[in-house]
Amino acid sequence: MSILVVTGTDTGVGKTVVTAAVASLARERGSSVAVVKPAQTGVAADEPGDLDDVIRLSGVTTTFEFARFPAPLAPAAAARAAGLPPVSLGVVAHRVAELTRSHRLVIVEGAGGLLVRFDEEGATLADLARTLSAPVLLVTRAALGTLNHTALTLEAMAGRGLEPAGVVIGSWPAEPGLAERHNVADLETLAARPLTGVLPAGAGSLERATFARVAHAGLGPALGGGFDASTFRSTFRLLP
User: Fold this and answer.
1) Interval 20-45: pLDDT, tens
2) Given 15, 27, 37, 117, which residue is catalytic?
3) For this structure, is 37 an active site residue?
4) Which CATH architecture describes the domain 3-235?
């Protein structure tokens, strides 16, 4: 794949850490990687954003943030609150396509979920993925409530003809409870495939070398790692 779009079922599910993990594995393989954040919200101009975390964790330094708005809102609302023009997904699509000429992999990390609005016309990350004909990697939670959010996002992807690149749990607790242990099987049923990966809680605070090992253990072969869903289920004695 030359372009991979990373989205989540919600905000705060671990999209940036998963993006960094995919970038880290690609970098370890010697691939040229670029990471794009079409719109960063909730961060002031002089504060570190999601791409700073990607650089810190993965070592990938070719990153592009096309718009930044300080209010912690969806991109369209944040642009409106700041009195600034919204990000143009048409421009983003053109620039991402250009990056594929010089990079083997371009990872695009969205803001919030798949259908969060980027402009007043209602353009979404789903529209960007469809324009780019790019597969979409869905990052989800493990806890109670994840099944509905995951099902709705997968249905939205299917309804728009988007190719799923898999489902990754963005933050797996050290001591999973009843909901987490049951939800894995249901998430796989919803996705009609085994999980593509599971990253442990706290992975975003690791130093780079340790993070690289965690990324390899936590993401599946399709993303360059060694994660195996059946081994994961056995390790945690997950419930059917």
Assistant:
1) 999 999 999 999 999 999 999 999 98
2) 37
3) yes
4) 3-Layer(aba) Sandwich (3.40)
